[in-house]
């Protein structure tokens, strides 16, 4: 089974560098362009279905991609919702990271919980779909820490609209790419040092 994780397109909170988390913030026009860019990249191979987080920024990104590829928009999985940042949602991501560099923010969901939810979401998707090529649209922190857990090593922050690939073979997940870059080409030291993209102004990828 082939999975492509896609981070939703940009929102105004992304642009302004605010922690977004479980707050249901819509895409902006740049985010819709990033969703369009993503499906243009993805059309080089066949895909069976798009699923997503239920938050509107992910769901709209998934709908744009489904329409562009002429494939079904599947269900929304609550396990794919972004990390809950609690009372810090809507505040400066850079300030939060400076104060709590390990990203264990007071009142926020733990990163361990986020990674476990990501694994649970993948298990649910495999149980529902069983085989094929599936696009999974969700959020930067859950993608990053799920991939890191599966790969057994740090991975870099996830760009808006970027595509990260993994396969489920012989009962195990294998991470192939992160942000479109082969995992083996990403130095572990670089990935560990790279700031989170939780609320930073994102890089548009085509």
UniProtKB/TrEMBL annotation:
GO terms for molecular function: phosphatase activity. Substrate binds at residues 7-14, 57, 82-85. Pfam families: His_Phos_1 (PF00300). SUPFAM superfamilies: Phosphoglycerate mutase-like (SSF53254). The active site is at residues 8, 82. This is Fructose 1,6-bisphosphatase. It comes from Pseudolysinimonas yzui.
């Amino acid at each position: 089974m082939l999975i492509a994780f896609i981070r939703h397109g940009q929102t105004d909170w992304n642009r302004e560098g605010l922690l977004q988390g479980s707050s249901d913030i819509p895409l902006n026009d740049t985010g819709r362009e990033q969703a369009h860019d993503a499906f243009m990249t993805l059309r080089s191979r066949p895909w069976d279905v798009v699923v997503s987080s239920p938050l509107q920024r992910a769901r709209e990104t998934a709908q744009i991609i489904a329409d562009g590829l002429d494939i079904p928009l599947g269900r929304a999985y609550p396990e794919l919702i972004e990390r809950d940042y609690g009372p810090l949602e809507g505040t400066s991501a850079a300030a939060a990271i400076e104060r709590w560099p390990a990203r264990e923010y007071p009142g926020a969901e733990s990163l361990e919980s986020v990674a476990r939810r990501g694994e649970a979401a993948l298990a649910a998707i495999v149980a529902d779909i069983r085989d094929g090529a599936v696009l999974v649209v969700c959020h930067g922190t859950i993608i990053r820490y799920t991939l890191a857990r599966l790969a057994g090593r740090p991975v870099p922050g996830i760009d808006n609209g970027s595509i990260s690939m993994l396969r489920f073979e012989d009962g195990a997940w294998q991470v192939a790419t992160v942000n479109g870059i082969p995992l083996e080409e990403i130095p572990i030291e670089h990935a560990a040092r790279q700031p989170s993209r939780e609320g930073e102004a994102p890089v548009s990828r085509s």
